[in-house]
Amino acid sequence: MSEQEFDDVYTRLCYALTDVGEARTPVVLARLVLLLMKQVDDAAAISEAIDSALEGSHTA
After folding, report:
1. Is residue 34 in a domain?
2. Res 22 pLDDT > 60
3. Which conformational region is residue 36 in: left (phi greater than 0), alpha (psi within -120 to 50 degrees), or beta?
4. Distance between CA 10 and CA 5 in Å, rounded?
5. Which Pfam families is this protein grouped with (predicted)?
6. Which domain holds residue 48?
7. CA–CA separation, 24 vs 10, rounded Å?
8. Global pTM value
């Protein structure tokens, strides 16, 4: 995926989440993650992505 494609898809996601509203955003994101996990079909890559997502997300 090119940088432009990445930016376009990210922008689409942002608009979609705005459209569904704050209350439904967590459900949509959870569903998106599950769908992408099925497409990636690589447990190690998914575990690495989870670890990366968690870095710096813990509050003290």
Report:
1. yes
2. yes
3. alpha
4. 8
5. DUF2783
6. 3-54
7. 18
8. 0.81
**Amino acid (one-letter) located at 50:** I
Q: Is the pLDDT of residue 6 over 80?
A: yes
Tally of domains in the chain? 1
Return the beta strands (E) in the chain as ranges: none
What is the distance of C-alpha 35 from the center of its chain? 10
Checking if the pLDDT of 56 tops 60, the result is: yes
Which tokens hold the place of 10?
Answer: 């990210």
Burial 2-29 (b: 16+ CB within 10 A, else e): eeeeeeeeeeeeeeebeeeeeeeeeeee
**Could you tell me if residue 35 is inside a domain?**
yes
